[in-house]
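User: quick one, fold this
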Amino acid sequence: MPTFLHTADWQMGRAFTRFETEDGAALVEARFEAIEKLAQLANEHQCDAVLVAGDVFDAQTVSDRTIRRVFNATKGFTGPWVMLPGNHDAALAESVWTRAQRLGAVPENVHLALQPGVIDLEPQKLSILCAPLTQRNTYGDLTEPFSGYQSPEGFLRIGLAHGSVQGLLHEEIDSTNPIAPDRAEVSRLDYLALGDWHGTKQINDCTWYSGTPEPERFRNNEAGNALMVEVSESGSTPTVTRIPTGRYQWHQWRETLAVHSDLEQLLARLDALPESAVVDLRLEGSVTLAGEETLLKALSVAEARFRSLRCERSGLRLAPTDEDIAALKADGYVGEVIESLRQGQGQEDTQDDAARDALAILAGLLREREQEASQ
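Assistant:
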């Protein structure tokens, strides 16, 4: 039974500049490790080929070192790889692909689909019908010629394309590079391997997006997989198995805190995440001084445990209770300042942030003084 691995959207060379330097470097490295894992999986499952449905590279301008490292990472699987240019790495007259060829970086078992047509893998009896992007955006269906492509007798017809299936991908997709939803049926394909949608998604029995093998954005779209595809014979329904490949899990939470139990539930959810988590947290609502202290301690622990944690708290208002103020044991002028800061949180945004931060700092200083006095 012919078996192959379907992957796409590696986006090699992508920089994670919004993260701390150490975290960004780790996220970049994970993408190279993902390619090595794909090679390992191809061996473990005795795959006949690995098909990459576009956007191997994130841009035409990636460094020579990145190009060499990408192809070095494929060496664990000595069977055929077929790589298709996508919209980020289109097969221009002068492109990242022509540079890779000049560098001598492309191994013999890696087939670059730089022109529309068919790549026949004879020992594997696979005909790969390729629709590479030769410019970043197109407005016609590049898979339409598949219907006229011929394949040898007994070979499976596998389509390889990069774009948006029309009418089915409605969220945040490119309006160009369209693909007909019935392409597999119309062009007599046994399977259509697609890229561009970064999550794993089934279109029909024979048409799938594999998604990126390593998540790179905060979007709940089933990223971090590769697809193992088995086709018993031409015309049969393929068996498609999702195989997790991602190292890091990306989570984006928007939480509103109103009562103490909201904070407790949030911290419990954070504590349940694995160390491989990449977390983007935005908090709104209100929290007591005691709750703020608990939150900051928990965030400090989580920052050291997770791959990355970013928390935006500008929308979280400090709402000290009478018990909070009493616990600070602040009287006289200091007490008046605290009360003024409590009132100042209702002003303009910049004043609100300043009052909130000042109140937190003052509360912390008072607690430290109290702890020193008790020692």
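User: anything notable?
Assistant: The chain has a mean pLDDT of 90.
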